[in-house]
Write a structure and sequence with these properties.
The protein is mostly helical and about 290 residues long. It has helices at about 5-30, 40-75, 85-105, 105-115, 140-145, 150-165, 180-185, 185-195, 210-215, 240-255, 260-270.
Length: about 290
């Protein structure tokens, strides 16, 4: 097994320090146009992050078992060397893009990911608002395991991708020089991703690189000021309800669905999908006497 560091664990002190610095910056230099911090919202985000660490430990058991089985079955092997690690990071970022995009356009997957978008604030604590049901993510990375990437190496790359995305959850950093904005996912690009207005919905899915969005037609630059949150915001700060509210909404829709086709649509189509309203039959003209 490759001996790779736990990137998330080592980054926790930096997460705490940078979040405190950002909070202080708002105190010293308030910005009326920025969403800033709100105590209950930040507490919810931190609670979601701590909860995700606990639940992820449980989800790792079946995921590691599946990944290990696939890894043992494939004859391919990718060694962990100084030059293969960047290639694995690049490949993981590519599959992260498709996982992220899938979690926006398939409702049962969105039920997991919606947690991260449920805050109407956008700050470093928002990065910690992670789902508790991340069991839906693992299938997207099976091709990497089948190509011979060790599960531990994939875990390292996924952790590095997650840590990178922490710093882009801020309004305190404006646009960066154009070469960085063209290649990398930046705070400006990610503000668009977290916005709820029409032109910004379901855009900028990249993790480390924004090049995937440019390549696959999902890129939108930041022009108008983003409005954060959901198209239908939730009013709760209860972490359990934040983690499960979309699953509850799916269950309600399934109870009222009238056909199996509608039930399938409520689960596997987009989050905003609804069956077409039935059309009233046209009145039959009275026969002339």
């Amino acid at each position: 097994m490759p001996n790779l560091p736990d990137v998330v664990l080592w980054s926790i002190p930096a997460f705490v320090l940078l979040t405190v610095v950002e909070i202080v910056s708002y105190r010293l230099h308030p910005d009326e146009d920025s969403a800033g911090y709100e105590a209950k919202d930040a507490a919810t985000s931190i609670s979601m992050g701590l909860g995700s660490l606990v639940f992820d430990l449980a989800w790792k058991i079946p995921i590691v078992a599946i990944y290990t089985a696939v890894y043992e079955l494939t004859p391919l092997r990718v060694p962990v060397l100084w030059w293969t690690v960047p290639l694995m990071l690049l490949a993981q970022d590519f599959f992260y893009y498709w996982s992220h995009r899938g979690h926006h356009v398939i409702r049962i997957l969105w039920a997991c990911h919606v947690v991260h978008h449920s805050s109407r604030k956008f700050n470093l604590s928002t990065a910690l608002r992670q789902p508790w049901t991340s069991l839906t993510v693992w299938p997207f990375y099976l091709p990497l395991i089948a190509c011979g990437v060790h599960p531990a190496a994939l875990a390292f790359c996924s952790s590095a991708n997650l840590v990178y995305q922490f710093w882009i959850h801020t309004e305190r950093i404006d646009k960066l020089p154009r070469p960085f904005e063209y290649v990398l996912n930046t705070p400006s690009h990610h503000r668009v991703h977290h916005a709820s207005q029409g032109g910004y919905l379901d855009r900028n899915f990249g993790g480390i690189l924004i090049l995937w969005d440019r390549l696959f037609g999902s890129f939108t630059p930041e022009t108008d000021r983003p409005v954060y949150g959901l198209t239908k915001n939730i009013s709760t700060h209860n972490p359990l309800r934040v983690a499960t509210h979309e699953y509850a909404a799916i269950a309600r829709d399934l109870r009222t669905a009238r056909t199996w086709r509608e039930r399938a649509g409520r689960v596997f189509r987009g989050p905003g999908w609804a069956p077409p309203a039935p059309t009233a039959p046209e009145p039959v003209a009275e026969r002339a006497a």
